[in-house]
Structure formats: C-alpha cells, structure tokens
C-alpha cells in the first residue's frame, strides 16, 4: 500500500474522455468518521487530477470520479515529516502540530518568472538565508527593474487576444509546482500573491467572472501544499478595476473552497484591508511600526508588516533605507508584538534586484535578521506589547500612588493615547518569563528598571547592529540602574530566573 506522510500530498488521476471535458474531477477521502471532499483540476492534458493533503495518520480510503469515470483505492498516512500548515493563534502563529512559527519573511515578487539561472541563484540564496516565508506573485509583474517577459503565462490566449482562464497553460503551472516544491524542501512558506496592479499583460483587467474562475482553479490545484498562504493582493486599493465587494468575493471563495483552511490576507497600499471573518492575519504596508501596533490592537489578529521599507539605494524613498534604519524598524515592530518582513533593493546594472527577481543578496540586514531570529527562538514564547511601555515621567505623575492621574490616563481619548504611544513610550514586549525593551534611536548611558521584589532576574544588553548580547546584571531584583553604551539601536532583555512573573 502506498504511504504518504502526514501533511504530504497524495495525487490521483483519471484519463480524459469525451464526457469529461467540461467537468471538474472530484474525490472523497475517508478515515473513520473523517470525510473530506476535494475538487481537482485538468489543464488541457489527458488526465484529470485530484490532490489531497492528509491531516491525520491511518489508512485513508478514497473514491475519485470524473464524469462517468471512477477509481477507488487506499493509502497509508504515515507520521509527519514536517510541522504542517501555519495557523494564526491570537496575534501570533503556530504550525498545525503546535510548534511555534516565527515569521522571518522576505519578498521576491517575480522570481518564478525569471531565467533558470536566476531561479537557481534565488533558491541557493534562500538555502543560506534566515527567511522562512516568501512573498511571490502568480501573475508576472511589470515595474522598474522588471521589464522582462516570462517564458510562460498562466493561461492560453483566446481568439480575441485575451486570456482564456478555462485553458490553463500546463507549462506555466508545472513550473510553478516545481518552484513551490523547491520552497517546501527549504522549509520556506509560500505567501502567494493572487492579484496585483503592476501589469501590462491584461491580468489586472480581467472580468470578475474570470477572476473567480482563475482563483477557483488556483485553490483546487495548490491548496494541498502544506506551506501555501493565500495573499489576495499586493496593494489592493491600487487595483482600481476591483471593488471591495470583489475582494470580499475572493476571500469568501478561498475560505469556502480550501479544505485545509490555509492563512488568508489582503495587502494594502494605504489603508489596512477591513477586518473580515475570513481574514486570518493582517498583511500591512507602512513605515511606522507604531501604526502596526494600533492595527494589532484593533484587529486582534497577527500583524505582518510585509513592507516596512527596503534596505537599498534605488531612487524611490521606500527602496533606499540604510541597513540600520531597516533593522531599527524591524526591532521596533517586534517589540510591539508585530512581525516585520525583509526586503532588498540595491541598484544593479543587470536589474536583478532581490525584491523583484530574487537572485542574490547584497545587504547587511539578513545577518542581523538571523541574529534577531536566534534571540527570539531562544525565548520561551511570544511576547505581548506593553501598551504604555516606559513613560518618560521625571515627576512620578504616573506612579501607582496617584490614582487620579492613572484614571485620566485610562480614559484618555484615541488622539491622546496615540500621542502617549508616539512620544512617551518605548517599544516593550512582555512575557511572564522575560521582557524586551528596545531603546530605538535613543543614545542613553543608563536606565533605571523596576523589577519585582520577589524574585531573581538577569539583564542583558543587546546591540542590534553589532549583533552582541552581553550580560549586565544577574540575580537582581527591585529597582536597579543599568549602564548603557550611549548609542542607538540598543535593547535590554530581562529574564526571570525565579520569583514573580514579569509584566
């Protein structure tokens, strides 16, 4: 009996007949009381296919039908070789098997549309990089540094010269399968962007019925990959032909038709996509991590700042951040309980820039993202942002001995809260066993900490640029004064050794 690992892919097929040309193949998979119906696909070839991702171990039985054609069989689902799909849990992420997922994402919009050597370079770079999530487009992209035409397109053309979404080009989709399988081997989540406005081929101008037909096909073909995420858009507001109702239809279709309930987002240009029942997390574009924190509070969902700016030197403001500025934004977002993704845009005469085509990395951020990743992985669990952080309060007005001031603060209106957040606080992430205080661009030489009296705590000083983590004090409690190096980009990590939790 054939064996498929849990979260792997079982594919079955039937030959094409004259009666099956307009019919979608289907299969039902059964294990005990579990019964999963899966819709398949064909692509102008001689067979109809169904793909299935088993989510439980045991002997699965199946029956596939394609018109009048039928086949039956069984396979054994063996123990998993991976953690399975990523799920949202509160404002953070976990794999399906419960393991924690810390997204260290990056963007290579059109990497699958490049020459074979560039694709090979991209995969080789990813193998050595800290990234575990990659944003990528199904449709080719037309923008600066990306004017080449791909070898294949998702669909064939019709007699009028438009795209015939009923005729997927098997060369394109087979190529996409190969790219997804390569990412799977590297342990990289594929955050697939389904629509975007940067287009000269007509994909962004398709009618809504064609959009839905294409989306339905993509879900039937790709959802059995355990590492797929669905990103409805890149900058949804910039797709002027599509309405909010259109975007809602896309999200509802995926939520209804994806039997494995992969993550779904919709990336913004200016304003975050409105909260919807099918929205599993926020894919946000914005340079200010404090705005991301406010979205996290409002949506009560994980916030991925997928575009916080790019380390690079090209002409647009968003693509010319210094390495330090980029990492400063990432650490600020992290301490506020959000997840900021990587991007790189260094000018090259061959126009192979990582953000668009992939290839190779040239910046200073990836090594420092690995440093951050290693720190976060060493901690016992995800942090929650401290809403007030460290308030600059030399007169003690916010001290707990003054309930009148505390009550005013508690009832401050939204504008006042934003002022406090932006002007008087530091980004602080809190867990019962640790506290992370990021100093941002302050160049302090010392800082007073109020630790619990009942317990022992360790204080470390982290230099986010030099990538150092140095012990400052150990077995301390109560009020202590910590010496700092008097430079930007310093964080404090306080760890509980015993006693009362940190808060």
In short:
The protein is built from 10 helices and 29 strands.
For the biggest β-sheet, the strand order reads: 22-23-24-29-26-27
Radius of gyration: 25 Å
Low-confidence stretches: none
Overall average pLDDT: 93
Highest-level CATH class of the largest domain: Alpha Beta
- What's the structural domain tally? 3
Describe this structure in words.
The structure is a single chain. By secondary structure, the protein is α/β, with parallel strands linked by helices. The protein folds into three domains: 76 residues, Immunoglobulins (Immunoglobulin-like, Sandwich), CATH 2.60.40.10; 293 residues, Alpha-Beta Barrel (TIM Barrel); 111 residues, Sandwich (Immunoglobulin-like), CATH 2.60.40. The protein is built from ten helices and 29 strands. The strands form nine sheets. A six-stranded antiparallel sheet has the order 22-23-24-29-26-27. A five-stranded mixed sheet has the order 1-7-6-3-4, with no helix packed on it. The chain has a five-stranded parallel sheet with strand order 10-11-14-15-16. Strand 14, helix 3 and strand 15 form a beta-alpha-beta unit. Helix 3 runs parallel beside helix 4 and helix 5 packs parallel to helix 6. The longest helix is centred in the middle third of the chain and has 17 residues. The radius of gyration is 25 Å and the shape is globular.
Question: What's the helix and strand layout?
Answer:
Layout lengths: L2 E3 L4 E6 L10 E6 L2 E6 L7 E6 L5 E9 L2 E10 L7 E4 L2 E4 L9 E3 L8 H13 L4 E5 L17 E3 L5 E6 L1 H17 L2 E7 L12 H15 L5 E6 L10 H14 L6 E2 L16 E4 L3 H11 L3 E5 L3 E2 L10 H13 L3 E2 L3 E2 L8 H4 L7 H14 L5 E2 L17 H8 L3 H10 L4 E4 L2 E5 L7 E5 L4 E9 L4 E9 L2 E5 L6 E10 L4
Parallel strand pairs: 1-7, 10-11, 11-14, 14-15, 15-16, 17-18, 18-20, 19-21
Antiparallel strand pairs: 2-5, 3-4, 3-6, 6-7, 8-9, 12-13, 22-23, 23-24, 24-29, 25-28, 26-27, 26-29
